[in-house]
Amino acid sequence: MQRQLKIPRTERVREDEELSGGDAADDPALRGRWHELTRDGVVSALGSSPEGLSTTEAERRLAVYGANALPQPPGRSLAAIVLGQLKSPLIYLLLAAAAVSLVLAEYDDAGFIFLVLTINTAVGAAQEWRAEANTVALRSAIATLARVLRGGVVRRVDSKLLVPGDVVLLESGDRVPADLRLLDAAEAQADESSLTGESLPVDKAAGDALAPETQLADRLTMLFAGSTLQRGRVRALVVATGSYTELGAIAGALQTPSAPPPLTQRLDRFTRLLGLVSLGLVAAVIALQLGIGASLRDTFFVAIALAVSVIPEGLPVAVTVALSIATRRMARRNVIVRHLPAVEGLGACTVVATDKTGTLTMNQLTATRLWLPGHGFVEVDGVGFDLEGGLHQEGERLSEGADAAVRALARSAALCNAADLDPAGGAEGQSGDTVDLAFLVLAIKAGLDTGTLRKTARRIADLPFSAERKYAASLHDHGDGQMIHVKGASEVILPLCRDTDEGAVLAVGEAMASRGYRVLAVAAQQVDTKTRPAADRILGDGLGGLTLLGLVGFIDPLRPEAKQAVADCHRAGVAVKMITGDHAATALAIARELGIAERPEEVVTGREIAAADAGLDARIAEAQVFARVEPAHKVTIVEALQRAGHLVAMTGDGVNDAPALHRADLGVAMGRDGTDAARDAADLVLTDDNFASVVAGIDEGRAAYANIRKVIYLTISTGAAEAVMFLLALAVGLPLPLTAIQLLWLNLVTNGGQDVALAAEGSEPGLLDLPPRSPREPLFDALMLRQTLLSGGVIGLVSTAAFAWMIAAGWSEFDARNTLLFLMVAFENVHVFNCRSETRSVFRIALAANWPLIGAVVGAQAVHIGAAFTPGLNDLLGLAPLPLSEWLLLIPIAMSVLVVMEFEKLTRRR
Ligand code: ADP
Ligand code: MG
Known about the structure:
By secondary structure, the protein is α+β, with helices and mostly antiparallel strands. Among the domains are: 16-71 and 138-253, Calcium-transporting ATPase, cytoplasmic transduction domain A, CATH 2.70.150.10; 342-361 and 560-696, Rossmann fold (3-Layer(aba) Sandwich); 367-555, Calcium-transporting ATPase, cytoplasmic domain N (3-Layer(aba) Sandwich). It is 49% helix and 15% strand. The protein contains 32 helices and 25 strands. Helix 5 (89-103) packs antiparallel against helix 6 (107-139), helix 9 (262-291) packs antiparallel against helix 10 (296-310) and helix 11 (315-332) packs parallel to helix 27. It is elongated. The model is unreliable at 1-22 and 253-261 (pLDDT under 50). Adenosine-5'-diphosphate binds at residues 356-357, 433, 435-436, 465, 467, 470-472, 487-489, 518, 520, 580-583. It comes from Jiella pacifica. GO terms for molecular function: ATP binding; ATP hydrolysis activity; P-type ion transporter activity.
């Protein structure tokens, strides 16, 4: 965006002089013109090298160019939040009331209304501000990592730390972290829809310089920040970062504020409806009052008081707070919520369709069993990516022949490989696909020096692994000739091999798979460069006549929590379906161990889905395991389940999972090993990729929904209570039970804190023992209506009776109102405990489980009693201290609502 934002230019020039290299990243003449340079031209213009920058140089540049990040959309400003508080029918009403009070020269009233407005606005704004800050913090909690070459070594770094001149490596599914000039590309395609609007992926290649007038959309040698690599693999040079990227230039236009979530929208409509109803009620009462000849002035006060009692002014804020508390709780349990309404979504799901690899299993593949043609089985020691482990055959050392065969297999697998493993680098030095990493570990165990091997056998062409193809291939120059190396699913590779008894080898693979091994075949071929360009053969459909080097069986241990988590889902009435690209036998073996499936009939394969027979929907609905599926099938599965009436949550990690994640009612992406593309399409992200977190999400989602209901119930039922009291008093000819000011005060001291405290209620035990609620169930349902009418009725009736008794006993109106106000505060304090559960008895819920609630109740009493003692304020509110004996007497009266509601819960439990 603005060049001025940067480090002062003079300082930079000095540094540049010292370092002499053509540090042209901010040369205005080059901006947006990188495509006009050749590959070497760009590398030298940026003072970089094919090995990337050194770490120190990268740090220096970071200080000069700043972080690779766009200025964050500021979120809503405080002013906007404050103004938002004022946009509510109640506020308009109160403002009107204040204006009328001024006209009637009731300055105390007017002043107090303004005071309440101010406090209400401040409290609401503060709560929303916190909720907003929370969402922003969560959004940035998922860092994007980039693979970058620094000093010739591949490292994973936060993409914010990229600088111009860095060499980055991208694979399919990676978000493009900055503007890049391609150096190498294999089968690369990028999704640039966010930039150019072009919805189809565009081909990319590391070609030569392009003509200056080439449009952004046609710059096939460039990748732009904000797009995603859909396919293939690239090595590329960072040419612009942060706001200097093409995305940065248009970022302002992209910062459209997001619409409020449907849940809040639905609630807004609900409050607006309530507002209209109350206005109608108020109008009717005014007409009545005037009809019986009351003075305009009295009528006005009656009307205002009634309006104040029935409009639930605190509801929207309380719901926002409830949602925001829920997102924070989920984050603590490793579930990041990307869209606020999705908070409670998992709780409602009836099916979870989950990935196997990495979610149910650890994704720490270890090659533990090899099968070599002519040499039989070989066992491999060691666990995970630990490099220690020997090879043996039935406990004996390998024969020379077997050893050579293992090395040949290991060499092919290490060359046809997209991962990096620095044997000295620990976890930091590992990056790439786990299958590929596991192959590298195998190669090291077999005694190969993978680093040197890769340098000497230069890669000429390569076909990266894709889940549709289920294999990978690459062509290498070994000095004494060229070779093709291939690895992939055995039933895909074996038909491409010559001189093998396909049936017999497949049977060996099948036997390994049914014991839970993930089986891959490795093959190779010497190529005769004279007959035909070999690169065409591997990139086209020309593969064939390969030599089978062997089968490799990998063990991917189950996650320790997975079995319990599946059982928890079943208990919660949520079906768990496993989806995998793996072999049916492997999948069933694992599903059995997890308690997901028992019988082979419960497995549907990708082939059956592709055949799309008439009974497919029914098959899908009944199946527990989907094996050998391709990513495109996942959408079919989701849609079939939805047609069967399910609310489907779907987990995914790959770039090809994005459509299914989008299509599912709730997309859940993997935050650690998942691709950026999957995360962008998802509603929720699991930071630990663990299936157990899905269960936590179900639990928290249901708790969030329950809490929102509690908050609504409290607000609506107390409003109803006040309205009942009011209308009853009016009907029997009593004076106004509470003044408008007193009602305002009552709502302020009680609900100001209580509703927020309710939003913090913990999840009730047993939430995971119930089936999911129906997707079509309304928030304000019959149960809530009944409880609202009952509790509102009791409070309204008892308080009116108390007021009538006091008036009849000859109390002054002032004293009667004062005592009634104390009683109402007590009522609302007691009633909030009713709201803690719709079913469970108050006495079964630990008080200590919600300290904010205790605080809110004690606080309300303290503020109210304090106000009664405060000169000035007590006059304004019509308050006076109550003798302790009277105050104590109010408590049992207020308990009446507890008794009645306990009774209601008891009869329902029966
Ligand atoms: P999953 O859904 O369980 O993660 P994938 O779709 O990743 O399965 O893989 C499907 C099949 O493709 C595997 O069973 C394996 O045979 C093959 N495969 C997986 N990864 C690779 C790879 N890196 N190179 C070659 N083949 C692979
Ligand atoms: Mg996979």
